[in-house]
Structures are given as structure tokens and as C-alpha cells.
Amino acid sequence: MDAKVTRVAGTGCVLRGDDIDTDRIIPARFLRCVTFDGLDEHAFEDDRRQAKGNHPLDDERFAGARILVVGRNFGCGSSREHAPQSLMRWGFQAFVGESFAEIFFGNCVALGLPAVTLPRAELDRLMDAIELDAKQELVLDLAAGTLASRAGVQKIAMPDGARRSLLEGTWDATAVLLEAQDAVQRTAARLPYVNGFAA
Amino acid sequence: MAGRTLLDKVWDAHTVRELPSGQTQLFIGLHLIHEVTSPQAFAALRESKLRVPFPERTFATVDHIIPTDSQARPLADALAEQMLQHLEKNCAEHGIRFFGPASGKQGIVHVIGPELGLTQPGMTIACGDSHTSTHGAFGAVAFGIGTSQVRDVLATQCLAMARPKVRRIEVNGKLAPGVYAKDVILHIIRKLGVKGGIGFAYEYAGDAFDAMTLEERMTVCNMSIEGGARCGYVNPDETTIAYLKGREFVPTGAAWERAVAWWRSMASDAGADYADRVAYDGPAIAPTVTWGINPGQAIGVDERVPHPASVADDERAPLAEALDYMDLKPGEPIAGTQIDVAFIGSCTNGRISDLREAARVARLGKVAPGVRTFVVPGSMEVQRQAEAEGLPDVFRAAGFDWREPGCSMCLAMNPDKLVGRELCASSSNRNFKGRQGSPTGRTLLMSPAMVAAAAIKGRVVDVREVL
Fold first, then answer.
1. Which domains does chain A possess?
2. Which string of b and e fits B367-395 if b means at least 16 CB within 10 Å?
């Protein structure tokens, strides 16, 4: 399998609102589990129930969407990877927003999911364009740093290290980190507390 | 040459190498795990046939799902029991120390790490829990991670990370009586916003933090993540060293002397460069209460719920959404808001000093009729200390429900939950929609003393009027 994530194409789903926390993405009671299987069923469960069918995830126009378009500070709060896991299992392969909370962002990268940002005005244009025509294909080109839609070709941003790890296919970090086992031992040996501050 | 911050020193000391992506391969000195975010990580190790190369650098406990009425096995909730069994089995299989209820050292992971002396200055500390920032109180670089990263730490003792910038946050001057560490951090988040800290580590400095105990500093650092900062720290000083001395995992004798010297050397240099600096006036901080659905939506207890017209354009919609959810009226004083539930506990405010302050208030009255209460020590050690000081009797005499240690109603993964639209005065860290177990439940964050005062009066009150 090629782990390189260079491009995500598909329709979008617009989820407006800022500071949407991971408790809302996946309420804590669904964390009583030892696998991530089936979490997609509970994505945004309480918000959706309260929206009585009017939540974007229940909007037929957005059925089958691959790119979730969100506001500012998306994924704040709890570190639970269950949040991006539930959205990934729902079918989303990338996120576009004004900003992402850091732990959520790191979790997305660790799952090979790009989370890219647009300035507010550009994001608003994109959201409006998708809502006008939800069936249009969006193309996120991570190498070029662009998102193409009926809103035009927009310049997206993503922290460079994370972007490169997706482009180079090293986002599943275990293998990369394991390469340096000798260096890890040397670093550990240099840290006085690792040996209990022995003389 | 410009001085270096603690963040820089710790980062450099733990850098294994720069990765081709430009991120750092960072050695993790202390890894803490619990039952919720680790089972899938262990499953991934098993699948990849990986072992744990540094099992002595990982420690486990059970906190999120543990009931606070009875910890007797099997746990009443079969899913909770299954999670606990997985953790026990995974720890045994990989040679990881597990501080379960039978050890007498169980508790919230961010309470037991410090009290056992596992948390030390100059370390990198990671845990699959966003409130890992708590450990920064010791001058450690401590941050929350997701389950894939828990797997990475187990398998390699390292993480691939980008170095954060450092913002120095000074609070100078003496805090007024009745104003606590909780009020200071709520004030900071109110000022800087819930996303203001993205990309930053927060360095807390100034008279207010210098004067704080380690437990108070933990309360502040704990909520760094609520301000968007993945980690926050206070430079180690005499208070830090005095706290550590004699704790179980802290070195003794000549090793202690070497440890103290190294810890001191990790503090930020006087001339260090900061990406940003802000300063607040300590005496101006009031007891602070949240009125909305994120921890930045906070006001002084003597203030009124903000009006949509009073805020910037891009704040108006979130404000209206919060008021609607909370069913609070703009322009009304927050004091006087009726409460249904009072929760004292959590990794933010479940330590002995928190319980002492709450008990001080509990001695002055009885819980108001109709208010449900939960007083939950952060660990078995906190519970023992509280018992030695007679605090459970103080709480019980005032009509508070004294419970067993755990995360409890902070996130309601165990049976402790809000019901329906109940409104909870809470010493925890998050007032998100549905956070405390009812999809429509409501939370007002405040200090433990303020929660105790609210429990007695049945409504939000200024603790300064009660003490």
C-alpha cells in the first residue's frame, strides 16, 4: 500500500460553527470500548439528535462527502483519537477549516488525514460555494498546496512538517521512529534522570 | 548569545534527531497511560509484533471509568470492567507498573504522577489525555497525545513533534483573598481565548505563580490546553524542590543533590527570548465563573452575562449559541444563578488543598435542599490525607456526598452524570455541551471554594461574601 497522501478528491460537507470540541464529535460514553470499530455510528450523536435531522451529517446533499469543512479551533478539548477515528470511519478523508486544535490535528496526521486551513474570508466563500452546489467535486492537492472548487483554486496552509510527512508517506510515525533505535539509546543515556541521577 | 527558555532546554536535551519531515524525534522521559486511550495502542503493537523497549518509563492507572461509589470487582458496568481488564493484561504482558485500586495508589493520572514523584522537572511527559499539561507545574514539558501516538511512545519511547513557540504569561501582584489558581487560569483563558495558545507552550511567571504551591500551579498548567496551548509550565524553584523531596520515585542521598542541580539548570534563563509576552494584574482578578460552553466564556462573579451587542462581530454567533444552550439571559448577573448539582474534584481541582478550601466553606453551612453533590478525591492518597484531617466528616456533616477517587463527573464516563438540563457548579475544566454526561446538561466552571459556596446557597455566590 502506498502511504503517500498527496491528493483528496470528493464532495464536501459544510459544518459551520467555531470551537467544536471532541466531546461533541464523539460523546464520552462512546469511549467505553477497546477498539475504534463502529465509532462512525456515533459521530456527533448528541448534536445530531438535538438538531432533529437538520445536522450537516444528516443532510442528504452531503451524503458521501469526503471532505469536512469546518470553522475555527475545530477539535478542541479532549485528546481522544476516537474523534477523528469516528469521522474517518464515517467517510471523511480530509478536513478544511480556519484552524484546528493541536492534539486533534496531530491525531489526524497520525491517521493520514490532512487538516488544512484557509483564512476566514476564503473559508466562507468555500462554504457558500459548497452549499450552493453540494455535488461539485473538491480537489485538495497537498503537494501544490491548493484546494480547487467552484470557489476557485484556493491556497491552503498546513504546518510543513506534518504536510511533508503526509506527502512522503511517513505519517504513520512508528516505523520512522524505530529507524533511530541507537540514537534513542544514546539520548536516553545522556539524560541524567533516566539512570536515576547515578554518578 | 540570547538565553534559552526551559522549553528550549528540555526540547534540545530530548531531541533524538531531526526527521526528514522537519519534525523532531523527541525522547519521552515519562509516559503515563490509562484505560481509555491505551487499549487500541496495545492492540496495534500486538498486530505489528512490536515490544516496549522502555517499560520502566511507562506507568498506568485507571481513572476515567472507575465508579466512585464502589470500586469492587467486577465493576458494575461490563464495558468498564472490560477496559480495566485489558489495561491489567496489557501492563502485565509488557512489564508496565500498574497503579490500580489494589495498589492503594490509584487515582487520576495527573494527580498520582506528581504525588508519587514520577513527575520531575526537565522531563518530557506524554499521556493519552489532554490534561497532561498539568505536569508542567514542575517545569516539565508535558502534553496530551492521541492513541496512535501512545502506540508510538510504547513502541519507540519517542514522538514526532514540531517545537512550539513560547509565550510568557506574567501575573504580578498578590491575589485577593477568595481568589484561587483556578480563577487565575480562567482569567487568562478569558483574555487570550480558547484558541489563543495554538502553536504555543505557555510559560507562567511572575509574583502570583512564584507564590503558588505546586498544587496551585498544577491547577493553572492543567487548563493550558483549554486555552489552546498543548503544554504550559512554571519554571522549577524552591517550592518545586521542596514538594519533590522524599516522594517515592524521587532520588535520595547524593543522587538527590545531582537531581536538584540538574533541575535548577533547566529553568529558563533570565535573558531568554519569547515569541510573545503578556502580563496581567493579579490583584485585579476576581473569582471567575464560566457562563457559556467553552472555558473562555468566563466572567468575574460580580459581572453580568455579556450581551451579544457588546462583542466583536465574529464572537456574536458563538455567544448567542452559548446563551441559548445555557438558557442564561444577557445582562443578568451570573451571581444568583440557581444550581442543581455541585461537583468538587477532577485533575484540575481534586487535590488535598482543593478539598481543604472546599471544606472551609462547607463548615459554614449545609447543602441547599435539592442540590446533588459529589466530592471526589483525586486519588487514594488524597483520600487518605483527607481522612487523616477529618475532611470527609466535615463534608458529610454539611450534607455533601463524599466519594471514592476517580475522574467522575468531569467527563461522566462512569455512572456520575448530570440528568436532563441540570446545571452544575463544577471545579472541573470543561463546560462543553454535554460534557458532564447529559447531552443537554449545563456546567459552570469555578474554584472548589466557589462550588462549595454555591452548593450551600443553592445558587452562584461570591465566595468572598461567604468566607
1. 7-195 (3.20.19.10)
2. bbeebbbbbbbbbbbbbebbeeeebbebb
